[in-house]
Design goal:
single chain, mainly beta, Elongation Factor Tu (Ef-tu), domain 3, SH3 type barrels, 6-stranded antiparallel sheet, 6-stranded mixed sheet
């Protein structure tokens, strides 16, 4: 989950049967931690606090017993259903999701990564650029990755100078940032 107040979306951004109905990914399990069933997490939300606000993940399949900061940008968690290292290792790669309705409403200019992925990217002059395939956070703010029809990708910072807005179907990239 990312909640920067950057580009202002089109208010008619209601999409049915798409990302608006998909669960929101807050973290991913990267492996076991120790021998008692704890797991290491890569966080996609607003830190450990975003996980502590929820007790159940993945439609109730995982029940959070405790979570703590690992002091490396991730977290260590224990789930009621995971009893040992073997069970923890089997969860490697599992994403931790919550329903969208379990999260606070978004303010103007805010978005969840899942809302951007899959949007058609267009230049400000109307030229198709490709499709948003990923949203990365390298520490200085979000960067969207766009895949062209030929399979090549390019990245654009999710800043007002580069992305003046988006709506239910497209994201607009200014011509200065549209990789020609």
């Amino acid at each position: 989950m990312t909640r920067p107040a950057r580009p202002t979306p089109n208010p008619s951004r209601e999409r049915e049967g798409d990302a608006r109905n998909k669960p929101i990914i807050l973290a991913a399990i990267t492996g076991a931690h120790g021998v008692t069933g704890e797991v290491r997490l890569k966080l996609f939300g607003d830190g450990v606090a975003s996980l502590k606000a929820h007790k159940a993940f993945n439609d109730g399949a995982l029940t959070l017993k405790k979570v703590r900061d690992d002091n490396k940008g991730g977290a260590i968690a224990r789930f009621a259903e995971v009893m040992d290292r073997t069970a923890a290792e089997k969860l490697r790669g599992t994403t931790l999701t919550v329903p969208r309705e379990a999260l606070p409403p978004l303010g103007e200019g805010e978005y969840y990564h899942t809302d951007l992925i899959g949007l058609a990217a267009m230049s400000a002059n109307g030229t198709p650029l490709g499709e948003v395939v990923a949203v990365h956070d390298f520490g200085a703010g979000d960067v969207i990755e766009i895949r062209r029809e030929n399979g090549k990708t390019f990245m654009v910072p999710m800043r007002i100078e580069a992305v003046p807005g988006w709506n239910a179907d497209t994201i607009t990239i200014t011509d200065d940032f549209a990789d020609a």
